[in-house]
Design goal:
There is one protein chain. By secondary structure, the chain is α+β, with helices and mostly antiparallel strands. Strands 6-7-1-10-11 form a five-stranded mixed β-sheet. A four-stranded antiparallel β-sheet has the order 5-4-8-9, with no helix packed on it. Helices cover 54% and strands 18% of the residues. The longest helix is centred in the middle third of the chain and has 35 residues. It is elongated and about 90 Å long.
Length: 461
């Protein structure tokens, strides 16, 4: 019996480890990625690049992390290639059929180990940022056409992901009903730590506004107007977005829209002749990493006996994001306004995933209990102990998420006289060039007391 139990536990371990790694089996992603996350928080960009784990979390997440970390570190070719690899992996994942042999293996491994054995599927907002950072790479290369391709693709990819997620949630609901877990599901949700407000749809104001800026620079005012309005719907209190929509509504003679906007935001004041537009995208901080939360759960086994287990669920701690001093423009403080709160996007996404996660956990603890009882047949205490140890060690929360994204993004724009100007912060300065009738875009990412930044002159309007 001892030999039988040992072989069983070893077989389960080998099956799971063959799918990903021992790290995923006995630990979780946030723990492995802690050095990278902490280095970014401190603004130690090169150190964050060096700290990227050797054991990948899969082509998609690994590529996205490397792409973002290398981008803020100013290693743009490495960033571009990593994001392209992640993009190719997403294409392959979405091309494949919903049910495949490889996916079935990962699901089987997850049933007896943990959710980290399931192939990682990026959240909608993460797919949006994948294409956003590909677009930023193209902008840095002064390739407006390439950037426009990425913002067009972003909506298509997110829509496909949304459909896949809805199908997964429907499957989780059916599984909960068929296995009598609905009551337990509600009990867990009632006790789960507050993870932020539930978002019915993940919308990225940063992506929409950047898209509008690019379309306008390319002379496509209709597309620009649509995405500016989408950005305003996401952030209706952002006066910079409202001013931009008003400007285009006036220029395009959208009189009904203009009157509605003026009633709320006031009249648009046309820029003086000989000026150019400056747009600053200001990324701040680092998005929160998921943590692990454990909850005792009572479940009946196949014989009707009660079993108490600990669920290991991902969640977000309540944290205070440090405020940074304002950027300076020509020695005057810049008063920017928030475009996107990525912490809230991440929490909202996890809340949407939570029912499916809990159902998988509940099914798993039942399956693990059956394995334990099988190993303990005949009163073998050693087999029972081995199975219990394996079950406890492998019950790890799935904390995988894109953890190098910024915490929030703000925007600022103004009209400036043609010529040279300076953006400054923390004693450092970025020289920028403004031309009449053109748009100068400045990208800034700030963490700790460090920043990464550049500017580019976009096409004529």
């Amino acid at each position: 019996m001892l030999k039988r139990a040992a072989v069983l536990v070893l077989s389960l371990s080998m099956t799971a480890c063959a799918n990903l790694s021992a790290q995923s089996l006995f630990s979780h992603y946030s723990a492995a990625n802690a050095d990278v996350h902490n280095a970014l928080l401190q603004g130690s960009y090169s150190q964050a690049v060096d700290a990227l784990p050797d054991a990948p979390a899969g082509e998609i997440l690994d590529g996205m992390e490397r792409g973002r970390v290398n981008f803020v570190a100013g290693q743009y070719p490495s960033s571009f290639s990593a994001l392209q690899e992640a993009d190719m992996a997403v294409k392959e994942q979405q091309r494949q059929a919903t049910i495949q042999i490889s996916d079935g293996v990962s699901q089987a491994g997850a049933l007896l180990t943990n959710d980290n054995m399931i192939t990682y599927q990026p959240a909608d907002y993460e797919l949006g940022f994948l294409h956003l950072y590909l677009a930023l790479n193209y902008i840095h290369q002064k390739d407006l056409e390439g950037a426009l391709v990425e913002v067009r693709r972003a909506n298509q990819v997110q829509e496909m992901a949304r459909k896949n997620r809805e199908a997964e949630l429907n499957r989780a609901a059916r599984d909960a009903r068929s296995n009598g877990l609905s009551q337990n599901l509600g009990a867990v949700l009632a006790r789960y730590p507050d993870a932020g407000k539930q978002l019915s749809d993940v919308q990225n104001g940063y992506l929409f506004y950047l898209s509008g800026v690019l379309y306008e620079a390319d002379g496509d005012l209709n597309s620009a107007y649509i995405d500016y309005k989408r950005a305003l719907a996401v952030a209706p209190g952002n006066t910079y977005i409202a001013n931009t929509v008003l400007r285009l509504a006036t220029r395009m003679q959208m009189n009904e829209d203009r009157r509605t906007l003026e009633a709320r935001y006031g009249k648009y004041e046309q820029a003086a002749r000989g000026t150019g537009r400056l747009v600053i995208f200001d990324e701040q901080g680092v998005v929160q990493a998921r943590d692990g939360w454990r909850l005792p759960l009572w479940l009946p086994d196949s014989h009707g006996n009660g079993v108490m287990y600990n669920l290991a669920l991902p969640y977000y701690r309540n944290a205070v994001t440090p405020r940074l001093s304002p950027l300076m423009l020509n020695n005057q403080a810049v008063r920017s306004s928030e475009l996107a709160n990525i912490d809230e996007m991440a929490k909202g996404s996890l809340n949407e995933e939570l029912p499916a996660i809990i159902v998988r956990q509940a099914l798993r603890v039942v399956a693990k209990n059956e394995v334990r009882k099988s190993a303990a047949k005949g009163g073998n205490d050693v087999g029972n102990l081995l199975a219990n140890v394996f079950n406890t060690l492998t019950e790890q929360p799935d904390t995988r998420s894109w953890q190098s994204l910024p915490s929030s993004v703000s925007v600022y724009h103004t009209d400036l006289k043609a010529g040279s100007h300076q953006v400054g912060w923390n004693g450092r300065q970025l020289d920028i060039k403004v031309l009449a009738g053109r748009t100068t875009m400045v990208w800034v990412s700030r963490q700790g007391n460090q920043q990464s930044w550049w500017s580019v002159l976009l096409g004529g309007n």
